[in-house]
Structure formats: structure tokens, C-alpha cells
Amino acid sequence: MNLILEPIVKILIVLFINLTLVSYLVLIERKVSAYIQNRIGPNRVGPWGLLQSVADVVKLFFKEDIVPKDANKFIHSLAPVISVVVAFSTFAVIPFGNKITLYGNEYNLVIADVNVGVLVILALTSLGVYGITLSGWSSNNKYSLLGGLRSSAQMISYELSMGISLIGILLMTQSMRLTQIVAEQGGYIFGFIPNWNIFLQPIGFIIFLVSTFAETNRLPFDLPEAEEELVGGYHTEYSGMKFGLFFLAEYASMITASAFIVTLFLGGWQAPFIEYFNFSPFVISLLQLSAFAIKVLFVLLFFILIRWTIPRFRYDQLMNIGWKVMLPLSLLNLIVTAFLILINIL
Amino acid sequence: MLNLYDYIFYFFAIVILGSSFVVVFSRNIVHSAFALLFTFFGVAGFYVLLSADFLAITQLLVYVGGILVLLLFGVMLTNNIVNVEIKSGTMQTLPASLIAALIAGLLCGIFYVSNWYLVPTTPELLNNTTAVAIGYAFITTWILPFEVASVVLLVAMIGAVIIARREKAPEVE
């Protein structure tokens, strides 16, 4: 029975943390944007605006749910659900810590240690496009439809370079298991630089980071919901909690994407120089957990800072970068990595 | 006596059969494409059940993440923007059902005649990925079919690009 109970408990904990983080991420985003634009940001609900997220969620729950007359009702309702499910389920294969011993039992800090974990994440993120495309189509609104079309074109274009930029890491690790990839990132280069993939695969990291921005529809790649051109993009015709679900999905997929970046390039739960101190195994587990959390928060902050500093690309620029810069660069990176491994340097 | 494995098998079987009925019989082509999503999912589920991890994920990546998105893309682009009604009507019922029955009979025949290669599931087998073995098979034993498939895909891609570009040529003059 433990075989079933243990994953369920882990899922509930991870889901709870993710949901809480989503609501506060919205607040952080609003605060950061306010400071960047020399404003104060939300400060009325609770101290420092801390209860703003609660107020927002309550508001979304009580808003009227409006469905356009000629919309396809079934798909219109299903699309936000698909978005949310995809955004949260991806987290299942990400290891958020090494092992922890509680009451004499050892637990692996990952929900599902799948041996093709990297591919699972790529496959699931590519499913995210369905939520957006179907919502755009079912709304029976030309702006929504254009948003949906843009999203599918964008995701297909950037998926390629995203996947190819990862192969460099897979070549070095010789495994698609994420726990294995994190374990390989222990140790040091030249004795003092942490053996993280960001230092071994800098070009791969940049390509992957940019592709992640495109896959999560964040600025400068938020063409599917470009307000100035498309009203609200794919979610123009959504209201109430259905709109809330899209909102939730966007931030949840940001968290998952950050966790994926941390796992692949920033050493996952590896906390460097931890072995020089004589901590007990339990403290080490906790420190590794917090190292993972800090790294994820750092990447999330980077996501937010980019959003409020860089303007949106034009559509042709987006496609040019995707196909004429990112794809050749990722192929070059792959060839160079393969060559270096062949002559035993990496 | 049905165990958990059987229940999962029948669940996926029902998903595949039910959704493929919608694919074939739905009048709305977007509904068909949408139901195809569940068919692909069910097949991927079968692969997982047979511990073919790499195949299952590739099924999702290629068919669900790639081909079906392009299909929906094409349908949406033509159906809602250009106002062309695309209906999947029924025609040539007799020859179609004959061919379908023939293929079904052929598949059932192969199923009964084949000498299935069965491996008992062990924990080691479940823990090791099949990706390594598939990779080696592609670049050693099956390199020629693999390369031929690559060339065919390349030709198809170049052909698609040429067809897509041809419309622009007269405008230049």
C-alpha cells in the first residue's frame, strides 16, 4: 500500500507548494514591476499587499462565467483544464531533493523517477499548446483564433532548438533520467567551480533559456496574448475562474520551467561546498531542498525581470530568431559537444 | 481474475476504441482531430503498459506534440478564417468497408499465426530504459533502413517547402 500512498502524499505536498507559490508569484511580479516602473504596487490588502493574492482568487471565483453564444461549449470549458493539468503534471518527474530520512524511512525526493524523464517533460510541455490552441478555436472570436494560431506556430518553432540544445547534456550524462543528470552535476571543475552544466554547456544553456521563454509564452515571446494587437489573445472570451485557470497555468508552467532549468543546468538540488561542513545527513537533505528552492526562485525572478525590461518581438523577428539563429546554433553546439566527447575532453 | 494490470489495459482499450469511433464518425473535423488526441494517448498508454518507455514518449512527442498540432493548425486556419466548410462526409461505403474488413482480417490472422516473443517482466527490465538498445540498433543493425527513412523525410520536407513557395513566384514579375 506504501507504493500508492507515498506518491499521493508527495503529489499533495508538491501541488500545495506550487499553488501557494503561484499566488505569491503573482504578487512578486506585480511588486517587481511596480518597483521597475517607480510605483508602489499592491499595498492595500494586508501588510505590504500580502493578502492581495487571496483577494484576487476570491474575486475570480465569484465572477460571472460568460461563454460566447456560438462558442463550442465543451472544448471551451476543457481548454483551460488541459492547460492547468499539463502545467502541473510536468513537475512529477523533477527531483527536488536527494533523499530524506524521516522516522527511519528513506524517501526519494521525486514523485516519479522515470528513466526517460527529459523526454517526458518535453512531451508534456508540447501538450501545453493544446490548451491555448483549442481555447482560441472554440471561442469563435478572431482575436482568440489568431492567438491560438500564433501559439502553435511559436511552440513548434522553438521546441526543436529546445530539444536539440538538451542533447549535449544527454551526451555527457549518457542518461535521460533526471536524478542521474543531477547526480552527475556534483563535484567541481578545477577544484572550485561547481560541476554544473551551465559551465559545461553555456551555449546550450542560453538556447534552452530563450526557448523556455518562448514555450511559456512569456515576454519577449508573448505574441499569443499580445494585448495591443489581439485584445487578450487566446483568452479574450474567458471570464471568471476559467480565466483564472489560464492565469494559474501560465505561472505554474513558469515554475515548472524554472525547476527544469535548475535541474538540467544549475545543478538541481546540489548545494556546492556543503561537504566541507560536518552536517548531519538530515540537515544536508534540508539544505539541498532549500538550495533547489533558492535556485528556482532565482530563475523565477529572472523571468519576471526580463518581462518588465525587454519589449515584445515582432512576429517575423520571432520566426527569424527561432529558425535562423536558435536552430543552427543548437546544432552547432551539439556537433561541438559530440566532437569534444569523442576526443575525451568532456 | 482481473488484476490492476488488466483494468488498466481495458481502460486504455476503451479509450482507444471510443475515441477512434469519434474520429471516424464525427461530422465536425475539429472534433475528429480532437478525438484523435485521445487515441494517440491510449496507444502511448499501451506502450507504457508494455514497458516500452521510449516508444511511449516518442509517440506523445511526435504524434501528439507534432503531427496533431500541425493538423489542428491546418484545419483551424482553413475552417474558421476562410469560411470554407470542411465536412467529413461518407462516400464509397461498400469498397471502404470491404478493404477495412480485409485489413482487419489480415491483422487478426497475423495476430494468431505469429510466434510472439515473450519476456517475463523483471525489476531490472523495468528499470532500464529501452532508449540505449534502440539507439544501438539504429546505428548498427538497421542503419540502412534508418538512413533511407531519413532521406525520404528530407525529400518530403524539401518538396513541402517548394510547394509552399511556388505561389509567390508570379507576383515578382
What do you see in this structure?
The complex is a heterodimer of chains A (346) and B (173). Helices cover 66% and strands 3% of the residues of chain A. A two-stranded antiparallel ribbon of chain A has the order 1-2. With 346 residues, chain A is mainly alpha-helical. Chain A is globular. In chain A, helix 3 runs antiparallel to helix 4. Chain A has helices at 2-36, 52-62, 73-89, 117-138, 142-173, 178-184, 197-200, 202-215, 227-230, 240-265, 281-307, 315-342, and strands at residues 99-102, 105-108, 188-189, 193-194. Chain A has one domain (67-342). The mean pLDDT of chain A is 82. Chain B has helices at 4-25, 29-49, 53-81, 93-113, 123-127, 131-139, 143-166, 169-172. Chain B contains eight helices and no strands. Chain B has two domains: 1-84, NADH-ubiquinone/plastoquinone oxidoreductase chain 6, subunit NuoJ (Four Helix Bundle (Hemerythrin (Met), subunit A)); 123-167. Chain B is globular. By secondary structure, chain B is an all-alpha fold. At the A-B interface, helix 4 and helix 5 of A face helix 2 and helix 3 of B.
According to DSSP, the number of beta strands of chain A is 4
Q: Portion of residues in helices of chain A? A: 55-70%
Q: If helices are DSSP runs of H or I spanning 4 or more residues, what is the number of helices of chain A?
A: 12
Which regions of chain B contain 5 or more consecutive residues with pLDDT less than 50? none
Total helices of chain B: the number is 8
According to DSSP, the number of beta strands of chain B is 0
- Beta-strand percentage range of chain B: under 5%
- CATH class category label of the largest domain in chain B: Mainly Alpha
CATH-derived architecture of the largest domain in chain B = Up-down Bundle
